[in-house]
Amino acid sequence: MKITIVGSGIVGQSTGKVLKMLENDIIFYDIDSKRLDELEKNGYNVIRQLQIKGSEFVFICVPTPEKNGKLDTSIIEKTLLELSLLISNYVIFVIKSTVVPGFSDSIVKKMEKESNKKEGRDFDLIVVPEFLRHWCAVQDSMHPTKIVIGLNSSLEISEYSIKLIKELYEPIKVKKIYTERKTAEFIKLANNAFYSTRISFMNELYRICKRIHINSEKVVQAILASSEDFGTHAMEHGHAFGGACLPKDLDGLISWTKGIGYDAKLLKSVKIINEEMKECQECS
Ligand SMILES: NC(=O)c1ccc[n+]([C@@H]2O[C@H](COP(=O)([O-])OP(=O)(O)OC[C@H]3O[C@@H](n4cnc5c(N)ncnc54)[C@H](O)[C@@H]3O)[C@@H](O)[C@H]2O)c1
């Protein structure tokens, strides 16, 4: 398939290179001509002026900078609006860039208004979030642990795009998770929040261990050794935790750490969230 990559940085290049290995026809575009020179020197096709005629897919891999602690999606928005004016034949836009939940549904409306084109007839927009680690980008793109594919919630509209995206990713033998666009957008952020929380949790333990002079490695290894516990509890959500041990031991640990002069902020947050879950209005 013919695929245009818009934004040829870490994500754009690794996506393009992997899709090229899978025998697609890849064309890179970027506003940075040096990036394009480098790609061209290495035998890749590039375009210096944005156009998408004849492309089955256009991958959006432009940056999402952080602005005052918020994800700034304005470059992605501007790029998609610009692209909507270039639609001639039916095309599928794939957002790889990081966006906030609801971004795609909202941008599609703006694209339709801007260009007089219609989703499902002239174009479709799919969210395939990127989970790669930047230090081994191509490797992670070639061997991802999962591929999340976020489609328009009206699946009827997306029938043709589903067929094409399935075909595109078919050669990569990994679990594909099909869901709605908004869910896919949230999965990307939730996935990284999970990693961050896990590290902060381990760091909270680490700091407690340091304070009482015990080996944190041993503690972490012992926790992770009970893999059957993860089987039971890993997926649990939607209700507060209870029982004879979890709330009691958590309370006990929080007050004990206070006694050794450590303020266990994460553990205290865990307690607060659990209390709130008991009262949760939107949970039933
Ligand atoms: N790098 C990672 O590990 C990683 C992982 C997951 C998701 N992401 C997300 O992927 C997106 C891209 O990240 P990246 O790391 O590849 O960024 P990057 O800075 O490496 O590359 C972005 C490229 O887009 C180009 N660009 C900027 N504005 C453009 C425009 N208007 N039109 C065309 N090209 C334009 C830049 O010149 C640059 O070459 C971001 O949304 C990021 O959050 C990155």
Overall mean confidence score, pLDDT: 94
CATH class of the largest domain: Alpha Beta
**How many separate domains?**
2
What is the C-alpha radius of gyration, as a whole number of Å?
23 Å
Q: Give the ordered list of helices and strands.
A: EHEHEEEEHEHEHEHEHHHHH
Note poorly predicted spans.
none
Helix and strand composition category = alpha/beta
* Largest β-sheet summary: 6 strands, parallel
Amount of helix: 40-55%
Number of helices: 11
N- to C-terminal distance: 46 Å
Principal-axes shape call: elongated
* Fourth-tier CATH superfamily name of the largest domain: NAD(P)-binding Rossmann-like Domain
Ligands in the model, by name, code or SMILES, are: nicotinamide-adenine-dinucleotide
- β-sheet strand percentage: 5-15%
CATH architecture of the largest domain: 3-Layer(aba) Sandwich
- Tally of DSSP β-strands: 10
| CATH structural fold name of the largest domain | Rossmann fold
List the strand order in the largest sheet: 3-2-1-4-7-8
Structure summary:
The protein is α/β, with parallel strands linked by helices and 284 residues long. The chain has eleven helices and ten strands. Bound molecules: nicotinamide-adenine-dinucleotide (NAD).
